[in-house]
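so my prof wants the structure for this chain in the tokens format not the other one, which i didnt know existed until like an hour ago. anyway here's the sequence
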Amino acid sequence: MNVGEAQFTGSVLAAVGTLMGAYLLTLKIRDYLSEKPDPKLTYATKVEMEKLRGSLDEARRDFSGAHTEISKRNDEALATIHELIRRNAEHIAVLIAQAEMFDRRITETAQRVDRLGERIGR
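here's what i got, hopefully its the right format
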């Protein structure tokens, strides 16, 4: 090999090394600037988004129906509770009246017994 060919070969190898280094540097910059993780793995497609929206709308309707049903049941339960409270109040009022009546009768009976005791004791 003569000197001219060695210089040419050296120049070609230096140029190839420089191009390979630049290519490697470009790949590193591209890797640094790329999204992590891969967008294909993380983002949803339009079809998937439409399916998700459809299922969310269906869930919203189901929830609304369930909410309405629960509200109806709560209203019925409250009406039943109010009716029971009203009936209990009436029963309590009747029991109070009966207790007062029995108290009067017991008092009257005690007074009669006391009078009888006084008559007998004379």
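also thought this was worth mentioning. The CA atoms of residues 59 and 119 lie 88 Å apart.
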